[in-house]
Amino acid sequence: MRQSYEFDSFGELSIKGYKWTDSGEPTAILVISHGMAETIERYDAFAGFLVENGIFVYGHSHRGHGQTAESMEHLGYLGENGWFKMKEDLRRVVEMARTEYSEIPIFLLGHSMGSFLARDFLLDYSYLISGVILSGTGYFSKFELNLGKFLAQSEVNRKGIYYKSDRMTKISFGTYNKKIKGSQTDFDWLSRDAEVVKEYIEDPYCGQTHPASFYLEFMTNLYRILYTDLFKNLKDNLRMYIISGDSDPVGQYGKGVRKTARYYRDNGFDVSMKLYEGGRHEMLNELNRKEVFEDILNWIQSGRE
């Protein structure tokens, strides 16, 4: 059963989300932080699978995404200090789940942009959760991030915070299909499942060009997240499960994923990792997604407190 919820975010907009539950008592809760240029509705099948197996799910469309965005024209616009506000919105949902199911362990899953938001969440709020799953994550160099910040700032300065930046989109994603022979669309790097890619392209809330201000916020905060070791409230030996396709360009075809795993092991996390052969960016929407669903379920069930 899917129920909607919403709450005010900093007096600026209303966050729109869902709870996937049934009439029983859950064995665990999973909070989902979705990726860039998509919506929480795309996780409906995965959430339904978890509910069938006793795990309830919470998730919302981030500011600038899906039904949370003020209008179609505002898709991708996070607002002033929007990344910080996204992180606080995520904290609100985790605390909502803790309030409603106070004795049930809560896990956080972040995909792509949402994985970096989850990694930011860990710097401040790891004590709120029992474990974290990172999907479609990676590691970018200081040079890449500084260059991205510079280019995004120049576009904001010249064309304003709402300007939809084809240039930044091309710089960020323009090479992601390069290893796919005979690619049919600009988004084939997402999944080998052509129907998934088709649905993504046809969804008006997905795949849109983001404003230059989004990239400025994203690059600025990525630099801080990836190159800061200030875990303010680190929960000792927190469990982490990292999943990725070995053909995911965001994870540098496994290289950035392995670096992420090493980083968190070095910082006291209990890290497990799985790279799926041939898998692309969205393992929850890949041809072998049932296997991925089962792997996540097993990982959650193996570590409930």
Structure description:
The protein is an alpha/beta fold. The chain has a domain at 2-139 and 231-302: Rossmann fold, CATH 3.40.50. 38% of the residues lie in helices and 17% in strands. It is built from 9 helices and 8 strands. Strands 1-2-4-3-5-6-7-8 form an 8-stranded mixed β-sheet, sandwiched between helices. The model has no long low-confidence stretch (mean pLDDT 96).
Task: Briefly summarize what is shown.
This protein is an alpha/beta fold and 305 residues long. The protein has helices at 44-52, 82-100, 113-125, 142-159, 166-173, 194-202, 212-226, 255-266, 289-302; strands spanning 2-9, 13-20, 28-33, 55-60, 106-111, 131-135, 239-245, 270-276. A hairpin with a 3-residue loop joins strand 1 (2-9) and strand 2.
